[in-house]
Amino acid sequence: ETSDTTYLEDDTYDAGDPKTFDLNFKGPVAKRSCTDVLCCIIFILCIIGYIILGLLAWVHGDPRRVAYPTDSKGHFCGQKGTPNENKTILFYFNLFSCTSPSVVINLQCPTTQICVSKCPEKFLTYMEIQFTYRTNKNYWTYYSQFCKSTFVKPAKTLTQVLLDDDCPIAIFPSKPFLQRCFPDFSTKNGTLTVGNKTTFEDGSGKTRNAIELRAAANRVNKILDARTIGMKIFEDYATTWYWILLGLIIAMFLSWMFVILLRYIAGLLFWVFMVGVIGIIGYGHCYQEYCNLQGQPNSHLTVYDIGIQTDISMYFQLKQTWFTFMVILCLLEVFIILMLIFLRERIRISIALLKEGSKAIGYIPTTLVYPLLTFIFLSICISYWAVIAVYLATSGVPVYKVITPEGQCKHENTTCDPEIFNTTEIAKACPGAQCNFAFYGGKSLYHQYIPTFQIFNLFVFLWLINFVIALGQCALAGAFASYYWALKKPDDIPPYPLFTAFGRAIRYHTGSLAFGSLILASIQIFRIVLEYLDRHLKEAQNNISKFLQCCLKCCFWCLETVVKFLNRNAYIMIAIYGKNFCKSAREAFNLLMRNVLKVAVMDNVTDFVLILGKILVTGCIGVLAFLLFTQRLPTIIEGPTSLNYYWVPLLTVIIGSYLVAHGFFSVYAMCVDTIFICFLEDMERNDGSTERPYYMSQSLLKILNEPSMQTKKP
């Protein structure tokens, strides 16, 4: 019997063509050339442009505009070298006006805001000051520090003060928080008070109570409530930080142990789980419910008899419902058992590959440290993106807008000049209107393109994030491929495989990795745009547009998932053969399609083991942390005894443990995927003869040598 397979001794091997094989292939190709050079050039130019954008944002932006509060004139409170250097706190003239609808639209409270050195500590009104000024001038001295300009005496009438907006008509006891004066709320005998008072004069002749002031400062109150919680959370972290660190170290150790032990327990975990699933499905709960309904009134009715009911529990009182469940579960159990029978060999191969992945990590332990390098790179990208976003947002000069307390002026939200605002027609047409600082902007070419720069900042950020992940996948794939294609393991494994693979990926395949990352970043930016449109056009949408938008979201999510899968396998082929992205993606796709059943089984088995590992590590650490922080282990170890919220360090430990486990298992998943691709290649190019021996381990070779899968003959 003749074979139509061709064996090549040059570099013309095509992994996508099962009819041609390179006879001299012995692992990742060493002689390589740069791939996807054009995309590499574009990527480098984008990075240079990103750096230039950062420099421009640094020149024009001013993060102090975020750190320091800004008064109605656009001046910083507490900025050195200015008249407000010693005035570090922002004071609101009339906090009651913050209930205006314009607050939601303009994100600004329509009242005058000035910088002060300290917050008011007592109740005073402007009218009270006018009466007491003749006998005691100290009250006016205290009150005048909350006015826009210094007055010798309170000579103006209340009406004139309101028109000129020079002073607040009343001040209340306040405390500084986030460099702003907020009312000093407290509770006395279950009653809300401000400065130990339940009612007070608002300066305009009206009597107000603390509840009204709290309603006026509703948004502020949420921050005030968060202040106490924040302080308690900070105290809990200060008390338990070393316990949290210890928990993360234990999680790291457990993750490492789980990965190493998988070579011994992977098969046991899978089959125990499958037996458990079959047992749960086969549990006779449906039959018991069916028997219990025998003789019950109306249980013989059908779904058609009772029709559509809003109370779903009514359907569970019918024998027909439980009989249907029994039939479905029986069919499901038969299907699972048949799948396990027919796919048992592929399941055995998958379990053997899982064990082989654990063995590979044991021989190349430096791969477990690589997630730390990825974390550092991702942190740099995220930090750079956040800094540029802040600098871009604070670029420009102060822009002032017309704000009215009632929000019913036709000039509302138009640009104005605070220096001449009182002499303009707007002030006359809209009594009570103010020209307050709104945001930072400008009319130059740079300021006009700030929204475009923000989009560019986001897009390059996504590109860099995906590139860093792609670089890690390619480097790990190269290291694990070096392990697989070593004929005598571990003697033939090249020295420093991870470092060598990382260098190859950077030197030769930056363009290919950037190409795959660009595709993924483009899809992600479209998803972000869809989310943005959905949030801002939610009220204007009808049912049809909502349905279409949901379909688009679902399609883009599926597309992103598929592209991630294809990219991952393309990077493995790049690490092995050193070809460009398109060829590698095509060859990986063709290889996987020729072994689609193995791929499906392998993915499911791997996902199950990794999910089980994450649950096991996170659950163990979570249980120990719960027992420790709730003082359930006093006889074994004494934990912290004075926690305000034990769930704060508990959640921190649980989330941190999950992230640690995810970092370890992401390396393991990449290892298994790489070994799987290499295994498929090994199966197609070799036959186990002396001339073309298998590179797989002895455990895999034993499975292949069974009668169901005969070794090929030369």
From TrEMBL:
Entry-linked InterPro entries = Choline_transptr-like (IPR007603)
Membrane-traversing stretches: 35-59, 241-262, 268-286, 322-343, 368-393, 458-486, 506-530, 608-630, 650-680
- The answer to whether keyword rRNA processing applies is no
Membrane topology type: Multi-pass membrane protein
Indicate where this protein resides in the cell. Cell membrane
GO MF annotations in UniProt: antiporter activity; organic cation transmembrane transporter activity
**Reactions mediated catalytically:** choline(out) + n H(+)(in) = choline(in) + n H(+)(out)
The superkingdom of the source organism is: Eukaryota
Per the annotation, which location comes first and is thus the protein's main one? membrane
Q: Which family does it belong to?
A: Belongs to the CTL (choline transporter-like) family.
Q: What is this protein called?
A: Choline transporter-like protein
Organism in which the protein naturally occurs: Lynx pardinus (Iberian lynx)
Its lineage reads:
Eukaryota, Metazoa, Chordata, Craniata, Vertebrata
